[in-house]
């Protein structure tokens, strides 16, 4: 397990008197106010030897001690999973599509996070990769996301690339940055998509009212430009099956764009519709990364991979009225 972080200590001077504790710590550390409030409530902050309230006002001579939370590294997390069989971590062999010297092609299962979140809880794809190949811990720019050059939402299944070497990481990251990677998805959405084939170019920004992204008009000055192309594969009375290509990589792009069209992805609890009588029911999000095309870092050949449609789609579509 990781070593404990050294505590940080301050003694309040005259110009800091009457500052609120959480404001003071926000100013003196690189932590967010919300994370500091958690630290205070967990007892990792003391003022003159006592556990304070979040809103405590500081007095001259107060001694503040802050002990940062220590999170395990990606490799330590993977090693812990191996030691604890009850965690039921899938293996790389379970999800592997292809192995190349500089990268893996894998089929990420729905429900598996790509890398640890802020809480550092739950199984992740990083754990799976490092359990099989610990050397990948040195690959990339972020030690919590070794080998990760792109990501899928936790509840989205399908194809992903994992860099095995720094050379592969740098090359593939540039491929994604320059939009040389073609990614296609399969989506079952509620309702009727308005055209058999169309482009959606609503800008995307973080919602100001909910914990999700919001699609904005194309000419809006807020948010980031986003481009999604869809082609209808099959129509039902209350749902539409579509192939979707994203020509930009924004957070929740497909989910936000489909929701903006009034056709949220089936099984999406975050981007949902109110008219439940028209909502197809699924225990999981029916969005799958079905195809990927990119340039091989070594051979410079264009590589194309595709996978069969997840059986979860057929299980839901079997009950949909025509």
Give structural notes.
- The chain has helices at 21-28, 33-41, 74-83, 92-95, 125-132, 166-177, 253-260, 311-317; strands at 8-11, 45-47, 63-66, 96-100, 103-108, 157-163, 182-190, 197-200, 203-206, 213-216, 228-235, 239-246, 287-295, 302-306.
- By secondary structure, the chain is α+β, with helices and mostly antiparallel strands.
- The chain folds into 3 domains: 8-66, Roll (Structural Genomics Hypothetical 15.5 Kd Protein In mrcA-pckA Intergenic Region, Chain A), CATH 3.10.290; 72-178, Pseudouridine synthase, CATH 3.30.2350; 180-322, Pseudouridine synthase, CATH 3.30.2350.
- Strands 4, 5, 6, 7, 8, 11, 12, 13 and 14 form a 9-stranded mixed beta sheet that branches. The protein has a 3-stranded antiparallel beta sheet with strand order 1-3-2.
- It starts with 7 loop residues before the first strand and ends in a 5-residue tail after the last helix.
Key terms for this structure?
322 residues; alpha+beta; Structural Genomics Hypothetical 15.5 Kd Protein In mrcA-pckA Intergenic Region, Chain A; Pseudouridine synthase; nine-stranded mixed sheet; three-stranded antiparallel sheet; 8 helices; globular
What is the rounded distance between the termini?
56 Å
- The ordered H/E elements are EHHEEHHEEHEHEEEEEEHEEH
CATH hierarchy: architecture of the largest domain: 2-Layer Sandwich
Strand content: 15-25%
- For the record, the CATH class of the largest domain is Alpha Beta
Average predicted local confidence, pLDDT: 88
Q: Kindly provide the radius of gyration, computed on alpha-carbon positions and rounded to a whole number of angstroms.
A: 24 Å
CATH superfamily of the largest domain: Pseudouridine synthase
What's the main sheet like?
9 strands, mixed
Please provide the count of β strands. 14
Relative helix content: 10-25%
Shape: globular
Task: Label the structural class.
Answer: alpha+beta
Tell me the CATH topology of the largest domain.
Pseudouridine synthase
Low-confidence stretches: none
Supply the number of helical segments: 8
Q: How many domains is the backbone divided into?
A: 3
